[in-house]
Amino acid sequence: MLEVAQLSKVYGPDPAARPAVADLTFDVAAREFVCILGSSGCGKTTMLRCLAGLEPVTSGHVRLRDEVVSGPPREMAFVFQDYSRSLYPWMTVERNVAFPLRYKGVPKQEARAATQEALEAVGLGGRGRSYPWQLSGGMQQRVAIARALAYRPQILLMDEPFASVDAQTRAGLEDLLLDVWQRYEITVLFVTHDIDEAVYLADRVLVLRAPAHVALTVEVDLPRPRNQLTTKGHPDFGRLRSELLAALSPAGTPQ
């Protein structure tokens, strides 16, 4: 589905400047759930913006289904960390979700059906006529996810989408995401700095070190479907968590 090869990103005209991303290489298979884990400032968001075609790369390439990404692909959707800035406060929830569909050329009747289906999928079927500022933070992030789902992407990029909500809301959003990932059979690339979140969600976790490059790849073979109590109480959950924690520590020496 996605191929990233020797990707490098340097800001500014000086080619000798320290890169934000350096020699980044990895693949993501169709319908795979991959989490990108790394400490703050290691280049996770820059990497994601390059993958989405929002930033030009300095060298290397990104391919989505064998097509080089040179701008935002139509097959891709992006859920940002700051949901309050990604929703239009003067539009209702329904209009926010349907907004990108007009640029995709979706007929009005089909767009209405896709919008309603997406809102139902995230548990907001009865809130379509509300405005974002009338909803809680967790509900607003559900609207952002619904907008991405209504777009029917092949691949969904998510940049620390649950970082701004409380722990209980975060757990609910994680379970919601797993449910819609399986229901819509999409590919997800999810950036986070939370180890527990990465282990709970992913099929595979990539650990980045600065400048952004893959320092470690960890396969997560925990049983699916997952739930907060059973999965996080599984003996292998603690083992995987410890392995990733060691890799992220300043003294970590991942192989």
TrEMBL record:
Keyword Zinc-finger: no
Organism per entry: Nonomuraea jiangxiensis
Upper taxonomic lineage: Bacteria, Bacillati, Actinomycetota, Actinomycetes, Streptosporangiales
Keyword Cytoplasm tagged: no
Signal peptide interval: none
InterPro entries: AAA+_ATPase, ABC_transporter-like_ATP-bd, ABC_transporter-like_CS, ABC_transporter_ATP-bind, P-loop_NTPase
Keywords recorded for this protein, A-Z: ATP-binding, Nucleotide-binding, Transport
Top-level taxon of the source organism: Bacteria
Protein name: NitT/TauT family transport system ATP-binding protein
A molecular-function term among this protein's GO annotations: ATP binding
SMART domains with a match to the protein in the record: AAA
Pfam families: ABC_tran
ABC transporter domain ranges (all copies): 2-235
